[in-house]
């Protein structure tokens, strides 16, 4: 049986996690006998950007295992793994991306699908070695692979966005992140007035009095599954 | 003959050698008088002063008193005809003394009924003045005593002074110089006290007159200069004229003839300013003549007397002066050796003097006759006249004249010359002793007066100083008081402002502290959440993941258990993740809203003030975004207004609305209370505070109030960005 050489690029700020991924891939390699994995690792966003800039050109990466929650670095335009994923997707469309993250909020999942369109999306909380192996196998075979919560989101998703647009979702998301209304202008390309208007609109949709507080708004949004 | 006189005199001089120089000088004057035998100028003054002016003077005094001390009675109350009748009768010279006394008693009894003390005193003074001429000392003393007591009870210095004056005039008439001088001196003090310089000057003049009578020329001069000073101040020319006249005679007596001439010239100049100058002019001429007689320039003296006698019209009304002039002219002629035609003049003079009862004049006329007969060598006639003169003089207590007559007798009555001389010496000694005694007393009184005046001046000065000092101190105290009060006020205001500022700062600090705390708390939460999420969960995940890759062999139950534990680990991971998320969400739980603060405030106040409220605000507005200082001031603004609503308005409904109009934030409170008027608005300190607050925010305060309808207070603050 002919073996297939696969270049894998793994990004996570925890060395132990990367070690586990690598061990599991090795095991998968031995087990299936089809794939031979050449593994490139990055332990920080800065390192990952370096790899993207220099290694990707020399050696085509077939698969990227990408963590989102990475410690911030001082490189402009890169705040988290999200921007890195976008850059890879834009520059190397053939590269398959599996996002492995511990963030499990709907808006983030929404954003990931909107901006990166990953072939695989795995939530760490639901991930085990078998899951990882299955995901890698599926993705390498051209089948998208998502963990349970993501699948649930995907089935619900078509209903909600009709009512709430992308920005509404982001407003809710940032508010839940503890961002103040007045600081939302730093995160969104919207004016304060229009943000206020959207908030009132959200309260309307969620059947809330327009004098209700942000806490009430967020609670209702959670109840309705917008968060 | 003069040689004899001179030897006699030398003898006298020897015997009185031990006397002091003053007495020697007087003896010298006596010699002058003895040799020249002129009409004594002092007596001249005396007679003009008292016989021709005495009463008129008294009336003048009375009227002046009216004017000076009692302006209210200046217009005399209409007199009862009875009063008038009795008074006129009492004044009538042609009636006998007894009849006049009777009328005066009648008048006195009527006067006693007068209620007004001042008026009563004036009348009594008038009566005393008349009584002093009635030659009844008991009667005079009775009435003057009543007058004096009344004056003392009224306790007005001018009245008491007047009473003393009456006494003094009486005693002067009685030739009791010491008493008279004492009374004048009292009167002088009192008039000075009453600020009546004119009368005070008169008193000084009279004292000077008495001094000159007792040969205290220096004392008299001093007194006269003082009186002239006073008269200059009051502008009374007549009195100045009299003073200079007396000064002139005194200077003549002291043989300082040049000085005397200058005084008489001054007096003559003053005459021109007088209304009735003729009489005084003639008197002045007489005095100048007498002066020349003393200087033994009989020719020139004669021309003065002749000039004076060329005004018979004027002299007709003053016989005493006429007699003097005639007598003096005769004396001049005799002295020049012209004995013809002098007897008729002398007889005329003696007749006039006898008819007007001019006692001293009568004595002098007789001495002149003695002199005349002595000059023409008729010793017998001379002795007769001299004896007659001596009798008259001793009858009337004219001691100097007694001396003169004794000198004549010693010269012409050779047989008894020694006894006459001895008597002369004894009398002279007695007179000198008496005069010295009197002078000492006058000096004592004078000294007393001067000390009194000095004391008065000192007291006045002290009073003035005290007044000045107290005024200045009062002014200073007042200034200090005002300054202190102003400062205290300012301090209080400053303190109040500082307190307010302090409160606000405290509030700001507390809020900033709170916000800092919250910020720190939020950051800490965020950090913990991040730590949980990125650190612990990740490691937990890595651990679990790794563990799951480990192939285990063993009993089925044990393997099952192993998987179960791994699942538990996975659940734990999820729990921590959720916890981390909740940490973040909790940041929102904090209720630190500006609007909520205001809402809470209104709610609290509505409970106190017992009113319902509505709170309108524009949700869209980002109220949290307005500057912190504005927030605080707005909060305070609402607090103050609501406090006033509770205190004064008695409102049942209050509406608070806040909104934005373009670039202006508007905070409005409307109540349905009783409202207030515009004037009340101006007084209110509450409104001022609001205005201060508004101006601090560069805002604008609008207050509209309608009585019994309500009040709208609106604070508009422009947004600056």
UniProtKB/TrEMBL annotation, chain A:
User: Is the Methyltransferase keyword given for this protein?
Assistant: no
Q: Which UniProt keywords apply?
A: Phosphoprotein
Pfam families xref list = Response_reg
The question of whether Phosphoprotein is a record keyword is answered with: yes
SUPFAM superfamilies to which the protein is assigned, alphabetical: CheY-like (SSF52172)
Q: Which GO terms describe its biological process?
A: phosphorelay signal transduction system
Q: Which PROSITE patterns match?
A: RESPONSE_REGULATORY
Question: Which Gene3D superfamilies does the record match to this protein?
Answer: 3.40.50.2300
Q: Which InterPro entries match?
A: CheY-like_superfamily (IPR011006), EvgA-like (IPR051015), Sig_transdc_resp-reg_receiver (IPR001789)
Q: Which residue positions does 4-aspartylphosphate occur at?
A: 67
Query: Could you tell me which residue ranges the Response regulatory domain spans?
Result: 7-139
Q: Can you say what this protein is called?
A: Response regulator
What species is given as this protein's source? Aequorivita vitellina
């Amino acid at each position: 049986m002919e073996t297939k050489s696969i270049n894998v690029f793994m990004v996570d700020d925890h060395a132990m996690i990367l070690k586990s991924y690598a061990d599991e891939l090795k095991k998968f390699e031995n087990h299936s006998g089809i794939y031979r994995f050449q593994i490139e690792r990055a332990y920080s966003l800065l390192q990952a950007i370096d790899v993207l800039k220099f290694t990707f050109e020399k050696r085509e990466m077939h698969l990227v295992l990408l963590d989102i929650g990475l410690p911030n670095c001082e490189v402009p335009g890169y705040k988290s793994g999200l921007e890195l994923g976008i850059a890879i997707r834009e520059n190397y469309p053939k590269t398959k991306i599996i996002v492995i993250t511990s963030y499990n909020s709907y808006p983030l999942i929404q954003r990931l699908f909107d901006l990166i369109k990953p072939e695989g999306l795995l939530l760490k909380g639901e991930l085990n070695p078998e899951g990882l192996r299955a995901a890698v196998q599926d993705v390498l075979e051209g089948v998208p692979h998502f963990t349970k919560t993501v699948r649930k989101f995907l089935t619900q998703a078509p209903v909600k966005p009709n009512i709430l647009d992308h920005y509404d979702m982001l407003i809710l998301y940032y508010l839940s992140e503890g961002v103040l209304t007045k600081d939302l202008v730093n995160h969104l390309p919207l004016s304060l007035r229009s943000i206020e208007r959207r908030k009132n609109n959200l309260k309307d949709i969620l059947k809330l009095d327009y004098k209700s507080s942000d806490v009430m708004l967020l609670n209702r949004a959670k109840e309705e599954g917008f968060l | 003959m003069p040689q004899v006189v001179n030897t006699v005199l030398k003898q006298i001089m020897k015997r009185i050698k031990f006397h002091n120089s003053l007495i020697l000088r007087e003896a010298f004057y006596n010699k002058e008088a003895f040799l020249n035998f002129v009409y004594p100028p002092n007596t001249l003054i005396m007679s003009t002063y008292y016989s021709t002016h005495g009463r008129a003077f008294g009336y003048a005094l009375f009227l002046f008193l009216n004017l000076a001390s009692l302006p209210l009675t200046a217009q005399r109350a209409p007199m009862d005809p009875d009063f008038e009748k009795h008074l006129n009768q009492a004044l009538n010279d042609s009636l006998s003394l007894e009849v006049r006394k009777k009328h005066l008693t009648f008048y006195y009894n009527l006067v006693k009924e007068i209620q007004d003390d001042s008026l009563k005193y004036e009348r009594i003074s008038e009566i005393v003045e008349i009584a002093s001429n009635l030659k009844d000392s008991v009667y005079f003393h009775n009435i003057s005593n009543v007058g004096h007591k009344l004056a003392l009870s009224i306790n007005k210095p001018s009245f008491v002074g007047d009473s003393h004056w009456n006494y003094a005039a009486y005693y002067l008439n009685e030739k009791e110089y010491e008493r008279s001088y004492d009374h004048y001196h009292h009167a002088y003090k009192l008039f000075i006290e009453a600020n009546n310089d004119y009368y005070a000057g008169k008193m000084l003049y009279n004292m000077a007159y008495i001094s000159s009578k007792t040969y205290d020329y220096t004392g008299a001069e001093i007194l006269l200069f003082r009186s002239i000073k006073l008269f200059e101040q009051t502008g009374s020319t007549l009195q100045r004229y009299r003073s200079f006249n007396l000064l002139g005679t005194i200077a003549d007596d002291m043989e300082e003839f040049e000085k005397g001439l200058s005084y008489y010239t001054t007096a003559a100049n003053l005459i021109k300013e007088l209304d009735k100058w003729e009489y005084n002019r003639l008197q002045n001429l007489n005095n100048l003549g007498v002066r020349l007689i003393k200087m033994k320039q009989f020719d020139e003296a004669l021309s003065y007397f002749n000039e004076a006698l060329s005004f018979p019209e004027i002299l007709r009304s003053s016989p005493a002066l006429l007699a003097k002039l005639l007598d003096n002219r005769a004396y001049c002629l005799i002295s020049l050796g012209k004995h013809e035609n002098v007897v008729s003049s002398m007889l005329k003079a003696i007749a006039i003097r006898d008819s007007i009862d001019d006692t001293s004049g009568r004595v002098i006329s007789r001495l002149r006759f003695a002199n005349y007969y002595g000059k023409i060598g008729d010793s017998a006639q001379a002795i007769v006249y001299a004896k007659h003169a001596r009798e008259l003089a001793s009858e009337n207590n004219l001691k100097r004249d007694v001396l003169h007559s004794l000198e004549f007798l010693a010269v012409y009555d050779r047989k008894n010359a020694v006894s006459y001389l001895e008597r002369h010496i004894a009398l002279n000694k007695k007179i000198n002793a008496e005069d010295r005694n009197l002078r000492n007393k006058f000096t004592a009184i004078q000294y007393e007066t001067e000390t009194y005046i000095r004391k008065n001046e000192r007291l006045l000065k002290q009073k003035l100083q005290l007044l000045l000092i107290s005024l200045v101190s009062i002014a200073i105290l007042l200034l200090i008081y005002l300054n202190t009060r102003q400062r205290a006020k300012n301090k209080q205001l400053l303190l109040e402002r500082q307190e307010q500022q302090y409160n606000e700062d405290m509030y700001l600090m507390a809020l900033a502290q709170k916000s800092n705390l919250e910020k720190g708390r939020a950051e800490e939460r965020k950090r913990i959440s991040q730590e949980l999420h990125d650190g612990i969960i990740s490691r937990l995940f890595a651990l679990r993941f790794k563990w799951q890759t480990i192939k285990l062999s063993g009993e089925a139950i044990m393997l099952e258990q192993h998987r179960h534990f791994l699942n538990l680990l996975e659940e734990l991971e999820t729990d921590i993740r959720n916890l981390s998320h909740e940490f973040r969400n909790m940041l929102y739980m904090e209720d630190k809203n500006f609007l909520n603060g205001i809402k809470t405030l209104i709610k609290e106040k509505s409970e106190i003030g017992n009113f319902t409220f509505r709170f309108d605000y524009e949700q869209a507005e980002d109220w949290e975004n307005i500057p912190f200082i504005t927030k605080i001031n707005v909060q305070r603004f609402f607090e103050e207004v609501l406090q006033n609503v509770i205190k004064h308005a008695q409102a049942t409904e209050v509406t608070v609305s806040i909104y934005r109009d373009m670039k202006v934030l508007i905070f409005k409170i409307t109540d349905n209370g009783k409202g207030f008027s515009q004037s009340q608005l101006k007084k209110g300190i509450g409104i001022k505070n609001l205005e201060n607050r508004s101006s601090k925010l560069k805002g604008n305060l609008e207050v509209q109030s309608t009585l019994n309808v309500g009040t709208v207070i609106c604070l508009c603050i422009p947004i600056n960005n």
